[in-house]
Amino acid sequence: MMSCKVRYLIFFQYFGSKYSGVMRSPAHQAVLGVQNYLEDAVRKLNPVNEVSVYVSSRTDSGVHALCNTAHVDIQRKENKPPFSEQILTEALNYHLKPEPISIMKSSIVPPLFHARFNAKSRTYIYRLVTGLRNSSQLPVFEKDLCWLVQEDQLNVEAMQEAARLFLGTHNFSTFRALNSETPYKSPVKTMLLADITPGYSYFAQHHLNRNMQYWDLTFKSNSFLYKQVRRMTGALVAVGQGRLTLPRLQELLEVQDSLAFPRNMSAPPQGLFLKEVEYDDSELLPRPLDPDIEA
User: Fold this and answer.
1) Maximum Cα interatomic distance, the chain, rounded to a whole number of Å
2) Do the annotations mark residue 8 as ligand-binding?
3) Cα(33)–Cα(127) distance, integer angstroms
4) Residue pair 216/198 in contact by the 8 Å Cβ criterion
5) Which end of the chain is more exposed for a tag (fewer CB within 10 A), N or C?
6) What's the pTM value of the predicted model, to 2 decimals?
């Protein structure tokens, strides 16, 4: 008699520079996606069902995650009990070595739970640094973890005012890059948070250059369009540099045309982090373990 199939929600983080993005890529491709490694780790647990990991939030090549999520079904063979949440977390991390991917925790969820469609919101942080002449002055430990904007100072007040234009429900067509999903995905999104605050780097205090200033741009929405955060970040930086006026930014928002976005204004991927994916607390309440579940 086979054991029951259990659906798990896994919370995971990764250093994105090594991967083609979070989504699965063809096995013959030289650079694979994070999903490839997650699915390989699950297969090494020898489930009897076909393995498919369903990622909640897409991130592109070079983009990192402090916490992304995905769900996966696991059915063990013979009469082996389902994995407990802790055992699954430890087993997946064991099989993910030495990849810069880490499972933070696992939760047993209802059979119809979906990591993507049950998510209430996503929060992204984009990290900037100013005050340096070139990338060689950046602390080596910050390589690929922030965007060096070669300005001594940004007009942060103007950036804050510009960020407020994004708040609320808008058609963000101008701020999405075109891809295969464009015809099928609504460009109307509700921006719950768009903010710029002083950032922090542990390594800055150990660096000789005291002119470094880190900034965190935080965006929270129910969901985001393809490259939307990078385009919004690039536009806000352009405002801070005086290259883009607030009226022009308002025009870009209202024109609702992806091709109207200025060329070369999008922020690079390496400063972008998916911070968290939120769900209703009721869906993630601790579920009582069956006495037969492997602890």
Assistant:
1) 69
2) no
3) 23
4) yes
5) N
6) 0.92
Residue 282 lies in a domain: no
Residues designated catalytic? 60
Q: Which domain holds residue 189?
A: 120-276
Mean pLDDT along residues 76-85: 90
Alpha helices in 78-227 (DSSP H): 85-96, 156-164
Q: How many CA atoms lie within 13 A of 224 on its CB side?
A: 29
Six token digits for residue 86 = 């802790």
CB 231 within 8 A of CB 265: yes
Q: Is the dihedral of CA 155, 160, 165, 171 positive or negative?
A: positive
Residues 158, 228, single domain; the answer is yes
The last residue of one of the domains, among 117, 136, 169, is: 117
Average pLDDT across the chain, whole number? 92
Residue 64 is part of a domain; what is its CATH number? Answer: 3.30.70.580
Domains in the chain, number: 2
Residues 110 and 175 in one domain: no
Q: Examine residue 271 and state whether it is found in any structural domain, yes or no.
A: yes
Give residue-wise pLDDT tens across range 162-190.
Answer: 999 999 999 999 999 988 777 778 999 99
What pLDDT, in 10s, does the model give residues 86-136?
999 999 999 999 999 999 999 999 999 999 999 999 999 999 999 888 888
> pLDDT-based confidence at 148, cuts 50/70/90?
very high
Look at residue 129 and tell me if it is in a domain: yes
Residue 289 is given by DSSP the state: P
Report the sign of the C-alpha dihedral through residues 107, 110, 114, 117, in that order.
Answer: negative
Last residue of a domain, one of 117, 140, 165: 117
Q: What share of the chain is helix, strand, coil (3-state, %, to 5)?
A: 30, 25, 45
Instruction: Give the per-residue pLDDT at 290.
Output: 53
| Domain-located, residue 54 | yes
* Stretch 279-291: mean pLDDT: 70
